[in-house]
Amino acid sequence: MRNVISSLLGAAALVFALPATAAEKLTVYTYESFTAEWGPGPQVEKAFETECACDVEFVSVADGVALLNRVKLEGAGTKADIVLGLDTNLTAEARATGLFVPHGVDPGNLTVPNSWTDDTFLPFDYGYFAVIYDTEKLKTPPASLKELVEGDPEQKIVIQDPRTSTPGLGLLLWVKAVYGDKAPEAWAKLKDRILTVAPGWSESYGLFTKGEAPMVLSYTTSPAYHVIAEDTQRYQAAAFSEGHYLQVEVAGITTTGAKNPLAAKFMAFMTTPAFQDAIPETNWMFPAAKTSKPLNPAFDKLVKPAKTLAFGADEIAANRKAWVDEWLSAMSK
Amino acid sequence: MHGRRAVDRRQTAGIVALAAIAILLGGALLGLLAEAASNWSGAIAAFDGYMARIVRFTLWQAVLSTILSVVPAMLVARALSRHPDFPGRSLILRMFAVPLALPAIVAALGILALYGRAGYFAGIFSALSGETWPGAYGLSGILVAHVFFNLPLATRLFVEALDTVPADQWRLASQLGMRAGPSFRFVEWPVMRAAMPGIAGLVFMLCITSFTIVLTLGGGPQATTLEVAIYQALRFDFDPARAVALTLLQILLTAIVVAVLAKLGANVTGDANLSVASRRTREATRVETILNGLVIALALLFVAGPMLATVFAGLDADLGRLAGESTVLRATATSLVLAILSALLSVCLSLSLVMARRALELERRTGSRSLFERLADTGAGFVLVVPPIVIGAGWFILLRHTGNVFLLAPVMVVAVNAVMAMPFAIRAIRPAYDAASERHERLCALLGIGGRDRFRLVDWPVLRRPLFTGFAFAMALSLGDLGVIALFGSDAVQTLPYLLLARMGSYRTEDAAGLALLLGLLCLALITLADWLGKRADD
Description:
The structure holds 2 protein chains of 2 kinds. By secondary structure, chain A is α/β, with parallel strands linked by helices.
């Protein structure tokens, strides 16, 4: 009984807690899975707090898109010093708000594919989209996007809706990068293979692991989770000969953060092993800079893309709406 | 004089309740409008051919879902009401409140565990049709899921309405030798018909706003609801004007359907006499008993199937570890506190509205109802057709300059959940209150009983059970709610469904299944408690 009462009180305290008032504080807005207990947040917070003798406060919203909307709504009055968790599909729009200042970090130590030239946003991890398949259900996975599009419609795939989900938009860009103007025809063909278009990654992956479909759109790093945390080789990524679409996750300093010296320190800290060590096995993405130890061997066995596909941030911002409409009409026929 | 003052007091209570709803919705729309002030092009551009297709699909699936939920629910409720001693009856009714507390994705996975491509029945269906079972996707999948959510809800509400039939009427029917047919026509149908517009309207509102179910089971973007379009407008596009325009369209469509439903309903003239008969006696022939048993069993199988699948999936999880995790305990406590607070507030507001509506009806001399009475009747329902993301975003815009939005987050969650649960609570409370008022109003006026005395001596004994039913519904709904927290930042309020989705979003599907089981059990326990508290008065 006492446990119940104390946890009730704990909950009440949690619900109504006032923020601690520390002299030196850094406020970081990010997405939920970053700050979750199994996410990188707790480790990163501890490491940086030891280094800077300050207090790091994470504020989390659902995902990268919600993050951008949140900052847009708060405008110049935002409490965030750092916004961490946007991806390259959103940076053009984020930059256009005028709420971000240059990060001032030398991109020389970054290990992200293609060279990094953006002086406003700095990567903290990256990954590639990939079709993950169930080896118990599918003996010969597609070896290219073309084979996926033209393959047996009885072998289904679950994808996500580009209107509501980041990986969903990722696949849309991937198909666009490979097929260009022929993308609508590709979608019209792929449509028969799509079991359903889930609203988000969670729902689609849930359907996949329940055995509803032998394939799902996810990341090349997904098998690493199953190997390291569940000790199973059952789920594998299919390597596509056309290459894989890249997603880079970035952070930026806000105009509020420009006044807080801790913000620049945090950005520099982000590219050091103390931060990067946390990424692979909590965020299940590739680190954007050197780690102190080599990655778990499971990461070496992952699919290495034959080619890295990516559109520029401005190109995406200019075309996203038209491309989503094109997808809608191809898929609705 | 006394009675007159009491009527006024009831109306005041109704005004307060309506004001609460108006502030919540108006505030949200105002916030978005303020943000949109500069740019209206999105709102106008929203109405194109694509939107016409969306509207058509939204209405079509909602109308079908409503018919498929409400008509069978009438049969099931009637069967349950004719057999008060049906084995497991009270457990069935309690179980019927659980789907409300299940996050949509949990229900969808439960349904697919049976009817999906890899479901338990896939083999049988494939054998029967001679080809590979394609799984319950597309319109059929959406309908199955909506009936799973709404058939039990509608059944419970119809049972509640049938319970208001005075025992004298049953006795009279029995003395007159009425068989099932005539007794249905003269006793049960009028009550159900009176309750039908409200219940069907509620189900319709829940289906028109469907989001996760429609996308997950719909099979592709041809299955898109307005709710999805609103969500899209506020997410990638961040176009508040468009979101407001689409929300208003959704409200308008719902208002039209609710108005049509009201025409189908009827007002019953209640029985003004005090009931003298003891427990009702109902005689059913053997054939009828078997048929009723069959109806109940079918409904039970349909509802219990996906729930059992959820239980089995949950049992695979490491429940011992989960139950010991401090995060899980904290989330459980947070969920409980928020759900109980929301339910209390919701029941108070609902009762106020029910009392005000009745007082206005009594006062009215002419046939046409005032706007106030109409609003007191159906106004609360419209909360359900304003998407949570709109309420969240709108209020965030209003509150962003007040300092700490996070401190207000728990308050917002309680307020929004309370108001969202009102349509449910009202439907549970209103039939009993109106029936009691029909019987006691003049007596109370004559004896000069009003205000607190009247509530304690006259209304409470009759209302106790429906009030707790309303409480149980409101609690179940709040337990499962995820909606408004999103935009406010979830750090302040981590509830069980939030935790469930967070686990699901980071590969931990087994944990998520375990949490779904926990959530379902918690809901069942709370409903059992509410039932027990409500029933003690009858003993």
